[in-house]
């Protein structure tokens, strides 16, 4: 007879044992090692953070025991903490992520791939401004996760692909299926981009086209994949794609919340696809053609794109359309563009593209010359010689602001100049470009002006601690995204109060917000140098050169910052190319020749036996000696200023950089792309000299495009007694004049 009591006892014991195992086992399984890099740069302030936290919560349900190292970073590594997740409980980690502050540019070189455990999670938009990840031979599986619209999908996808990981776009992918794909180690498709080198692999044909939405707007980062094959590509910002296929392949077009389209390729070479939203009843629209020549490409200043994909109105003329009889920019524009109105006498400075839109604010378009935006006001724009113009493009229509933001709300005039010498003005003699020294009496007091404290700094100074001041700064960032000076002046407060990390981070926002605006980037580089961060200045000068490869100034700046950072090999190499005219993008460095010669010889005067100085002209080893050498560098091509040199007897002469006095030189600067000059003086009266900065009264300040002047003053240049002063001056903040320094001539 079965003992009922024993059976009940045994069953109860089994339940207790199972419950104990269920409680104990999860905590005895070896934890998964995860490193999370959490991008806290400014561009991620508006991401879907809740969606990212939901992803982690679901992941920890599948992996209940994890040892997590969390690194938050932007321009610098902001924090590093370790958390132990047990039984799917991750409250401390969650609270930490909830309180992350988003500020600064991003630097992916801070990501340490080696030794990052079983997984490396990177939560980011894939946009690094200051540095890229360093590839290592052995890496963990890298999972890239994004939750905002504006991302570098190509980088996120390829980083995951080449590290046996997975890319999760939380705006497009379901969390549960994404985590399942990660756990099952699903292999992502390989992105292949067609260029001239791999245009048509053997046995395949090339398909290209445009992917757009139902409004005709280009769909960027749409996936174009081959069904059943581990091969795909993504569309660029104009919606264009190219992919090599085999006969009878089927293409799959997919993007975010849009319906997926499958297209049989047949004999077609051109396939344009219009994707519809999933909430729409319409099916995707496919337009095929046997020829790809139907794509109408148009120049929009810095690149060519498909005209149909733009989504806004664009008109374009080239140098062939500009008559030799045209003497001004206004005459070149007159009658060439529909809906464009010029001022009296074809004044380009008073151009209106779409009619008046405001009775208070400016109604004039933004002029962008060789990628450099000029101030939007009614100033004279006719200093630009038509003979140096290669191309003019006018962007109009409300959607143009998608490309240039608030700069485009009145339209944009894009001007590309020829990289050649300007026409010679027969009425101008060669000696007019040389400064004529005429002394006058200086009647004002010789008192060196102190730097004025801005309203932003005054507000931050009212707080009892740097932390409170930083919180105040963060609370006003959203209202000052287009205010360059907000970041410059706020950063100055943190530098002056000893918090270099916050100062650097605040300044780096300019790179995050204005990544292609070289005038703003020059301001950023100037300030990095001011605060002794020349390694960061080097990064900015590299970005400027890559953005504007046809501007001579950028090569000299980079060669000099290499020298300053004691990278002598790189500096010599670049100076060699400059002096031998071996840079293919540049026709002539003539406007910078005196500076280049003095800077190169100055560099070579530091040489020792370890330097490789072969194939350098002997003349470059002879360093000239000057009592005074003054180098002026300005941030914006429209910068106008005068510097008065005041001798010990209070007599002065003036060297001018204004359109009124030097319009031909300003034209040459724009044509060759240089933003600096030097003045070398030897026969000077001994004693104390002063420099007084003067700016034209009509030069309006602009918080979006501030103008700064860097002045380097060398005394006894080329001798063992050489001294250098460097001053960074705010041209917009100078009311009329400012005595900014003194020096002694022995």
From TrEMBL:
* Compartments where found: Cell outer membrane
From which domain of life does this come?
Answer: Bacteria
Q: Spell out the family assignment given in the record's similarity comment.
A: Belongs to the TonB-dependent receptor family.
Matches recorded under Pfam families = Plug
Annotated organism of origin: Aquimarina litoralis
Q: What is the lineage of its organism?
A: Bacteria, Pseudomonadati, Bacteroidota, Flavobacteriia, Flavobacteriales
| PANTHER family, sorted | HEMOGLOBIN AND HEMOGLOBIN-HAPTOGLOBIN-BINDING PROTEIN 1-RELATED (PTHR30069:SF29), TONB-DEPENDENT OUTER MEMBRANE RECEPTOR (PTHR30069)
Q: Which UniProt keywords apply?
A: Cell outer membrane, Membrane, Signal, Transmembrane, Transmembrane beta strand, Transport
* Annotated membrane topology: Multi-pass membrane protein
Q: What is this protein called?
A: TonB-dependent receptor plug domain-containing protein
Q: What is its main location?
A: membrane
**TonB-dependent receptor plug domain residues:** 307-412
């Amino acid at each position: 007879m079965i003992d009922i009591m024993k059976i009940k006892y045994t069953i109860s014991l089994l339940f207790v044992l199972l419950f104990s195992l269920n409680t104990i086992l999860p905590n005895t399984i070896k934890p998964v090692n995860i490193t999370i890099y959490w991008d806290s740069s400014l561009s991620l302030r508006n991401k879907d953070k809740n969606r990212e936290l939901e992803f982690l919560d679901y992941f920890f349900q599948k992996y209940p025991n994890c040892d997590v190292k969390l690194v938050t970073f932007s321009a610098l590594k902001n924090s590093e903490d370790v958390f132990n997740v047990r039984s799917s409980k991750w409250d401390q980690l969650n609270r930490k992520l909830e309180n992350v502050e988003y500020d600064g540019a991003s630097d992916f070189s801070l990501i340490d791939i080696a030794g990052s455990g079983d997984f490396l999670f990177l939560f980011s938009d894939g946009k690094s401004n200051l540095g890229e990840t360093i590839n290592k031979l052995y890496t963990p599986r890298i999972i890239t996760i994004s939750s905002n619209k504006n991302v570098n999908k190509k980088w996120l996808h390829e980083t995951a692909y080449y590290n046996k990981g997975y890319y999760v776009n939380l705006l497009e992918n379901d969390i549960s299926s994404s985590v399942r794909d990660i756990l099952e180690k699903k292999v992502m498709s390989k992105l292949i981009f067609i260029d001239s080198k791999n245009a048509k692999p053997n046995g395949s044909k090339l398909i290209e086209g445009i992917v757009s939405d139902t409004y005709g707007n280009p769909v960027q980062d749409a996936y174009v994949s081959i069904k059943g094959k581990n091969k795909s590509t993504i569309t660029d910002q104009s919606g264009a794609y190219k992919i090599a296929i085999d006969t009878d392949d089927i293409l799959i077009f997919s993007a975010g919340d849009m319906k997926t389209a499958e297209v049989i390729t047949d004999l077609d070479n051109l396939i344009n696809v219009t994707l519809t939203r999933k909430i729409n009843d319409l099916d995707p629209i496919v337009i095929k053609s046997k020829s790809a020549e139907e794509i109408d490409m148009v120049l929009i200043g810095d690149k060519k794109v498909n005209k149909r994909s733009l989504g806004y109105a664009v008109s374009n003329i080239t140098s062939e359309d500009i008559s030799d009889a045209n003497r001004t920019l206004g005459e070149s524009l007159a009658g060439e563009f529909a809906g464009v109105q010029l001022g009296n006498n074809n004044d380009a400075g008073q151009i209106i593209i779409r009619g008046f839109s405001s009775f208070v604010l400016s109604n004039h378009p933004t002029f962008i010359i060789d990628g450099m935006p000029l101030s939007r006001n009614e100033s004279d724009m006719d200093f630009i010689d038509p003979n140096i113009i290669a191309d003019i493009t006018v962007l109009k229509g409300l959607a143009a602001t998608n490309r240039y933001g608030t700069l485009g709300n009145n339209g944009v005039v894009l001007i590309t100049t020829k990289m050649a010498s300007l026409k010679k003005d027969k009425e101008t003699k060669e000696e007019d470009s040389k400064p004529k020294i005429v002394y006058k009496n200086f009647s004002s007091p010789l008192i060196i002006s102190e730097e004025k404290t801005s309203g932003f700094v005054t507000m931050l100074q009212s707080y009892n601690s740097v932390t409170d001041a930083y919180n105040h700064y963060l609370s006003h960032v959203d209202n000052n995204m287009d205010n360059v000076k907000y970041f410059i002046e706020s950063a100055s407060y943190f530098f002056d109060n000893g918090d270099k990390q916050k100062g650097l981070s605040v300044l780096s926002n300019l790179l995050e917000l204005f990544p292609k605006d070289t005038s703003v980037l020059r301001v950023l580089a100037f300030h990095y140098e001011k605060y002794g961060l020349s390694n960061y200045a080097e990064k900015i000068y590299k970005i400027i050169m890559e953005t504007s490869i046809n501007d001579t100034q950028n090569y000299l700046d980079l060669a000099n910052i290499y020298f300053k950072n004691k990278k002598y090999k790189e500096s010599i190499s670049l100076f060699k190319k400059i002096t031998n005219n071996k840079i293919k993008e540049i026709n002539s460095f003539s406007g910078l020749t005196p500076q280049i010669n003095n800077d190169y010889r100055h560099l070579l005067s530091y040489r020792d036996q370890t330097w490789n100085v072969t194939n350098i002209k002997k003349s470059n080893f002879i360093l000239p000696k000057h009592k005074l050498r003054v180098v002026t560098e300005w941030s914006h091509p429209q910068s106008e200023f005068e510097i008065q040199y005041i001798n010990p007897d209070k007599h002065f002469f003036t060297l001018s950089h204004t359109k009124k006095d030097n319009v031909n030189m300003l034209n040459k600067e724009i044509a060759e792309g240089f933003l600096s000059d030097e003045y070398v003086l030897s026969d000077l009266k001994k004693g104390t000299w002063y420099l007084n900065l003067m700016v034209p009264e009509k030069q309006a300040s602009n918080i979006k495009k501030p103008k700064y002047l860097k002045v380097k003053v060398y005394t006894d240049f080329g001798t063992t007694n050489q001294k250098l002063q460097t001053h960074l001056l705010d041209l917009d903040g100078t009311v009329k004049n400012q005595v900014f320094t003194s020096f002694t001539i022995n």
